Amino acid sequence: xxxxxxxxxxxxxxxxxxxxxxxxxxxxxxxxxxxxxxxxxxxxxxxxxxxxxxxxxxxxxxxxxxxxxxxxxxxxxxxxxxxxxxxxxxxxxxxxxxxxxxxxxxxxxxxxxxxxxxxxxxxxxxxxxxxxxxxxxxxxxxxxxxxxxxxxxxxxxxxxxxxxxxxxxxxxxxxxxxxxxxxxxxxxxxxxxxxxxxxxxxxxxxxxxxxxxxxxxxxxxxxxxx
Length: 226
Fold this sequence. Notes:
By secondary structure, the protein is α+β, with helices and mostly antiparallel strands. The protein folds into two domains: 31-159, CATH 2.40.50; 161-226, no CATH class. It is built from five helices and eight strands. It has helices at residues 2-23, 34-43, 47-57, 102-109, 188-224; strands spanning 32-33, 61-74, 82-88, 93-99, 119-130, 133-145, 164-168, 175-178. The strands form two sheets. A five-stranded mixed barrel has the order 2-3-4-6-5. A two-stranded antiparallel sheet has the order 7-8. The radius of gyration is 20 Å and the shape is elongated.
């Protein structure tokens, strides 16, 4: 009986750890766009820029779409696991992860079963980048996917306005905008021409801080209403 209780407690703890990892913490953690992260990382011109992008992404959940499976290695040992290396099309980077959760393994086997050459969408926590490969752990397989976007909009920010819409790494620190703050981009050319790259980054930081304060005050006021 004690052994059964210990196994149940261990299972509950594992589920909790996965939930915390995939949400960025027990309280909150918006999922970012993994395809955008891969693209910005691949286009960063300096090691410092790549390091800043990775530091911002590391430990947070990212949603990747259009991942073309390049290799699938299924372990014969218990518990079952499938190690996948996939190709991210916008950045020409690889994404590697190990699928261990029962629901995700089942999703891979659902007809038509996922195989090399096909695409899937996953949510995973960025652990690091090795050479040209993004490492995710843990990971959840979301659904079978197409190899490339269809015409029209279907990005993550359409479903989650808090997801990253735009990132800028030309200043002293990387700055990211969510979809709800996209209107700030109308000032980009003007600020860059007058104040340069650091000026644009500082403008974004200043405006975002102001808006976050206003939103916090507005939310606080709504909560105080009877």
